[in-house]
Amino acid sequence: MSSSWRRITSFSVLLWTAATALMLGSPPVLAQDRPPNILLIVADDAGYADIGSFGGEIQTPNLDALASVGVRFTQFSVSATCSPSRSMLLSGTDNHIAGLGNMAEFMAPNQKGKPGYEGYLNDRIVPISSLLRDAGYNTYMAGKWHMGEEPEQFPAARGFIRDLTLIPGGGSHLADMWGARGERQLYTYNGRPIQALRPGFHSSEDYTAAIIDSIEENGRDGKPFFAYLALQAPHDPFQLPAEWRDRYKGRYDEGYDAVRAKRIERMKELGVLDPKATVSPRLASIPAWTDMSPEERRMSARRMELYAAMVEHMDANIGKLIGYLKTSGLYENTLIIFLSDNGPEGNVMMVGAPWDNGDFENWGKRGTFIQYGRS
Predict the structure, then answer these.
(1) Average pLDDT, rounded, for the chain
(2) SS3 sequence, the chain?
(3) Would you say 233 and 44 are in contact if contact means Cβ atoms under 8 Å apart?
(4) pLDDT, tens only, 331-341
């Protein structure tokens, strides 16, 4: 793929590819012999400055490497919440047209039943997955869907020929399949509900592996692919394999005021923020780090340690996928797009049994629902 094409990392290219394919009646012919593969990676609730190439202190070498040879967008708009952003991303239309005028979980009484507030990706739009499938692409998905929980609304019914999908909006990253209230979450594999995940399942690891497997198993038919890797990470609860939980131990002991100030300075140095930009002060409702008790600071720092590890663990798995594309000879002809569905989660969800956050030493393990809160 030519360098000029590799540098275009806008969702508009997806729509352009599909539109061209439909006009020509076949996959589009660009400057290369084969249409480009498209890899769309969406993080869940990642902060704008979490990624190193956007000013963060978290180690994200694989995403930083992509940014170094691509384009970093600083005015790319998303919705404030998950499913509305995802509906716009896959439909190319406003979320009020696509059926997610609001998240289904937060639909107001005066919104329910109104056009555009169906709570799922409706049939007034044609998702990019269907357009590309009809244009000759293999279409794969792995990760979080959050755009309809009935069979006719599953990814398999909206253009994806293979999938490993968490159908609702969030929950455990591990094999227990728990939701926030301890309810069993619905997963599908190639369009069919599954009863269990593999022992040792972790969302970032298994969703990435599913995309690799799909490409590998279908890669000999000569078709390009559209792969949608819709990661759950770094959405709460922060849960990690044992070897990742202490990766950032002690790194946030200086507190969120200092971390924020350093991020802002790095963003200015990188050109992500204008050097003359002013930023809003810390909200008065959030205490200064120095005003907190030692125990409050210890718990806050630990929450951020786990979050940072979630981001780096996500990046490491993205690196596995990029590595696979390179060793398979697919990388140079693949358009790779990375974004977050919205900004960081500022709320604190109240969870009860079977979740148990009581033992500080167990945070990050199965059955704990750790969030970082407003600060």
Answers:
(1) 91
(2) CCHHHHCCCCHHHHHHHHHHHHHHCCCCCCCCCCCCEEEEEEECCCCCCCCHHHCCCCCCHHHHHHHHHCCCCCCCCCCCCHHHHHHHHHHCCCHHHHCCCCCHHHCCCCCCCCCCCCCCCCCCCCCHHHHHHHCCCEEEEEEECCCCCCHHHCHHHCCCCEEEEECCCCCCCECCCECCCCCECCEEECCEECCCCCCCCEHHHHHHHHHHHHHHHHCCCCCCEEEEEECCCCCCCCCCCHHHCCCCCCCCCCCHHHHHHHHHHHHHHHCCCCCCCCCCCCCCCCCCHHHCCHHHHHHHHHHHHHHHHHHHHHHHHHHHHHHHHHHCCCHHHEEEEEEECCCCCCCCCCCCCCCCCCCHHHCCCCCCCCCCCCC
(3) yes
(4) 999 999 999 99
Residue extents of the structural domains in the chain: 3-362
Q: Which residues are catalytic?
A: 82, 146
Topology (CATH level 3) of domain 3-362: Alkaline Phosphatase, subunit A (3.40.720)
Residue 1 has pLDDT above 90, yes or no: no
The pLDDT of residue 346 is 84
Whole-number pLDDT of residue 371: 96
